[in-house]
Structures are given as C-alpha cells and as structure tokens.
Amino acid sequence: MADGEHTMALDPTATARWAELATRIDAAQATVAVIGLGYVGLPLAMAFARRGFSVLGYDVSEGRIGTLAGGGSYILDVPADTVAAMTEAGRFRATDHPAALREADAIIICVPTPCQRNRQPDLSFIESASRTIAGILRRGQLIILESTTYPGTTQELMVPILESGGLQVGSDVQVAFSPERIDPGNPQFGVENTPKVVGGLGETAGALAAALYGAVIERVVRVDSPREAEMAKLIENTFRHVNIALANELALIANKMGINIWQAIDAASSKPFGFMPFYPGPGVGGHCIPIDPHYLSWKAREMGSDASFIELAERINHGMPEHVVRMVVDAVNETGKSIRGAQVLLLGLAYKKDIDDLRESPALPIFDELAKHGAVVSFSDPFVPTYRGRASVPLTPDTLAAADCVVLITDHTGYDKALILAHARRIVDTRNAFKTADPKVVRL
Ligand SMILES: NC(=O)c1ccc[n+]([C@@H]2O[C@H](COP(=O)([O-])OP(=O)(O)OC[C@H]3O[C@@H](n4cnc5c(N)ncnc54)[C@H](O)[C@@H]3O)[C@@H](O)[C@H]2O)c1
C-alpha cells in the first residue's frame, strides 16, 4: 500500500474523531496502552502515568503482570515505589487481558525484535502483538510501533494484520512508528529528555503521534513516514556498531605496535571538530548494537544491496571475546602456569556498566571459552547475583588474591579499583579502568 492511500481526505466524522483525540491528548485525558513491559515499555508507561495519563500496561508474562499489579518492579531504572504510586493513584493498571486494550485511545507496541539463529530478523513478537490489537481494534485508535525493526515493517507487516478485521488504516485508525532510544542505566538521559523521532502513516497519524509523545517528551522530531523513522534507529545503532568495530581494530593494531590505544584516542579527541571518540572493548552486547544492524543488512540483501560495513563490523566485534580469552591465556602463562586449572575471576557479566542485562553480553562467550580451556571460572557482578547456578563472588582481598587472573569485562561504577589493584595478582583490563603503569595490569 502506498503512503498516499493513508493521506486521503478524511470524511467529516473521521476529522471530528481525530480532532477530539488530539484534544484529549493535549489535556492528558487519553488512555494510553503499552504492549510489552520490558526495558522499553515499562519506563515509557511510567512516563505517561507521571504526566497524568491513564495508562494500561499489557504483557503476556503473567509473572511480570503479577509483580507490577503488586506494586513491584523488575526493571532497575523503574523503582517499585513509582509503580506502586502510579497504581494507587489509579493512573497505571497492569493486565494480561487483551480485551482491556479496547479502552485505549493510543496503543504503543514495545515487544522484542531479536534475531533467529541464522541472524534473520524475528518479527514474531510484532506479529503476535499486532494480532492481539487486531482482535480488539475499534475506530478512533492510534497504534504506534516502537520496536526496532527494518524499514517497511510498519506498513508491510503491521498494517495488513491491523486491517484484517475490516477497519481501514488512515481513516478508521491511525498508525505511526517511533523508535525507542532509551539507554538503560543512563543517569543523564531518560524517557523525557531524549528526543523522539516520529513517522506517521499520513499527516493525521504523524500529528497525533507527535502530540502524544510531545506531552511527555521534551523534543519530538517528525519525519515523513514510518520508513524514515525505522531507518533512523538502524542508522544510529549501525553507526555505533561500525565505529566500535573500528576502535577494536585500531586497538588490535596498536597492540602489535606497543601503543596505548586509549591514550591515542583521547589525544585524537582533543580535536574540537570532525572527530567523535569510540573505544575498544571485549565485544558488543545488549539487545540493540549486536542485533539491529542485522535487520538492516538482511533487508539490504533482500533488496539486492550489500551491507559490507555492517558485515565487516560484525566480524571484528564478534572476534573480540576470543581476543580477550587469548589475552587471559597469555597473562596466566606469564605467571608460569597453564590455563588448565587456573583460577580466573571475571569482573562484570552484564553487557555494560551499572545494569543487570546479560543479553548478548560478550562476557558469556569469554566465560564459556575460558571454561573450555580448563580454567576454573568465577565472576563478581553486583547486578547479577547468579549465573548458571553459580553465585557472584564478593570482592574481598581473599577472593582477589585467590585468582591467577582477574579480568575486568564490565566497568561497573561500584568496583573498588584500589582494592582490586592492591590484591589481584594479574589483571586483564578490557576497559582501561586501571589507568596505571603497574606491570600486573595488561590493557586491551
Ligand atoms: N533494551 C534497550 O535498551 C532498548 C533500547 C532501544 C530500543 N529497544 C527495542 O525495544 C524493543 C523492546 O525491547 P526491550 O529491551 O524492552 O525488551 P524486553 O524483553 O525487556 O521486554 C519485552 C516485553 O514484551 C513482552 N512481550 C513479548 N511478546 C508480547 C506480546 N505478543 N504481547 C505482549 N507482550 C509481549 C515480554 O513478555 C516482555 O515483558 C525491541 O525492539 C528493542 O530492540 C530496546
């Protein structure tokens, strides 16, 4: 279906319907439903509730709905107090009954978009959420997709499912795409002060979605259609993926040349224009950087185009955990020991600092590979109490001194660097956390 079909002149009843919804959005009197209450959906639901909207949170996980209904939370950035306060104020209700979604004026979809084993996009969650909506859809609803996906998904995949019951997108219901940019654990930027990109299927959809987000978010950036908004998100994460890969490749080169790459990058950063620093690390993790570029390369291939940068970046970033394992093997060797039977303590399993998310974390292949080499692997992570039945080890002079090698993978703020430096026998530092010339520290 072409965009034009969604910009058709509206009949007077439809015009009045959308004007009435716009008025209710402006007065924060619209009911907003969020489908998928994870790292993205729950903070968003709370933002609308705090602003005074009546919010329905819908999820297929009974456990999550139970926790929320009891005034609890499972997302670090959303305190249980907030959920409890919003629930008590009657502004937030968690449900796993799809029928409740019929009450909503606007429905925002925040379900996962992972990759299948062969790195193909897995859109099954978007499909099932769309089918859930199709089952309750009524005239006058605004449906917004937030899940990261390849350009064309909103129009080619979601719209046909929504229209399967006979209602027409563009006249009976409005549809938009607005990518989520939340950065879990970021103390500076949250839902309200991170600009929101919005692309509607037609002018009315774009204006309504922009008004809705504008009620809770400081700045809304409108684009012509869902495709530009879908692409914007993939550009952002592909940009990071490729630049991190470049930093990783430069680190490997610098290592061979005996150059401190961290100092060199910081020196390059003193240029006030035309440069933006990216840093090497043990690999990329999380639900975004390692996944999203594959959505773009998959779609590019389907259209007969290459995505060479993305594939190269993937190869380099994917190889970093193996490089870290080699560093650990060498570091242990230098102490005159073999990696088989060596005690290796990993600091940080989460994919980035100060969060508890293990998805795609490079720490996991490092853990597995070291164990395969015969090392006795333990870990310490204040955000991850257990992994594969093993408990996080407390960081004490004894646990540090007991390890043949301590590997800093994730630089959580709470780590006592002085304690680690004082008691560890050998440190492999993948984040330049220990800015020291101490020979027991081997820096990536
Ligand atoms: N996590 C991030 O930092 C981040 C940042 C920006 C964008 N995104 C994107 O946002 C989307 C959501 O990611 P997330 O990290 O919040 O995922 P998540 O796994 O934390 O949460 C997703 C939630 O959706 C629920 N769900 C799954 N299928 C459902 C269905 N059919 N109906 C209702 N609920 C359903 C799950 O039970 C879960 O609670 C993804 O597309 C992701 O790429 C994530």
What proportion strand?
5-15%
Mean pLDDT reading: 95
Cofactors and ligands: nicotinamide-adenine-dinucleotide
CATH class of the largest domain: Alpha Beta
Indicate the percent of residues in helices. 40-55%
Helix count from the secondary structure assignment: 14
Report on the structure:
The protein has 444 residues and is α/β, with parallel strands linked by helices. It folds into two domains: 3-224, NAD(P)-binding Rossmann-like Domain (Rossmann fold, 3-Layer(aba) Sandwich), CATH 3.40.50.720; 251-443, 3-Layer(aba) Sandwich (Rossmann fold). The chain is 40% helix and 13% strand. The protein contains 14 helices and 15 strands. The protein has helices at residues 12-26, 41-50, 62-69, 80-88, 124-136, 153-162, 203-214, 226-257, 261-268, 292-302, 308-334, 363-372, 397-402, 417-423; strands at 31-35, 54-58, 92-95, 106-109, 142-145, 174-177, 196-200, 220-223, 343-347, 376-380, 386-387, 390-391, 405-408, 427-429, 441-443. The chain has an eight-stranded mixed β-sheet with strand order 3-2-1-4-5-6-7-8, with helices on both faces. A five-stranded parallel β-sheet has the order 10-9-13-14-15. Helix 1 runs parallel beside helix 7. The longest helix has 32 residues, at 226-257. The chain is elongated and about 80 Å long. The termini are far apart. Mean pLDDT is 95; it is low at 1-5. The structure holds nicotinamide-adenine-dinucleotide. Residues 35-41, 58-61, 64, 110-113, 125, 128-129, 132, 147-148, 180-182, 184, 287-288 line the site of nicotinamide-adenine-dinucleotide (NAD).
